[in-house]
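It would be a great kindness if you could assist me with a short task in structural biology. I am sending you one protein, given as its amino acid sequence and as whole-number tokens for its backbone shapes. I would ask you to consider whether the tokens describe a fold that such a sequence might reasonably adopt. The full record is reproduced below for your convenience.
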Amino acid sequence: MKKKLPLLLRILVAIILIQTLRFKFTAHPDSVYIFTKVGLEPYGRIGTGITELIAGILLLIPKTAWVGAMLTLGIIGGAIMMHITKLGLEVNNDGGVLFITAVVTFLLSAVILWTKRKEVKFF
């Protein structure tokens, strides 16, 4: 169980990151609305999508999972700040689901990074 839980967390965060890509890359109206509201449409939407794809892949590779977790913390930390400062906790009457998902993803990424802390390399 000790080895399965970290793997499960990495897969879960990767799924969360990767499943949102269809909204960003297809210019879904909700995604366009969000990035327009924060002043980053279209380059921020596409750039964030590419970065989330990279983070999701890195999370699935055991040796780079810590890099994926750190990247995810940065991406999702930015998303949380945008919710708090510009978007609000509820976007387009979603009941706060997008914000809650961001917070959960951030916390899970922090747990992943903590479990991989001995592998973290600084140059």
Summary: The helical segments are 4-19, 21-25, 29-37, 43-60, 65-87, 97-115. The two ends are 33 Å apart (CA to CA). The chain has a mean pLDDT of 95.
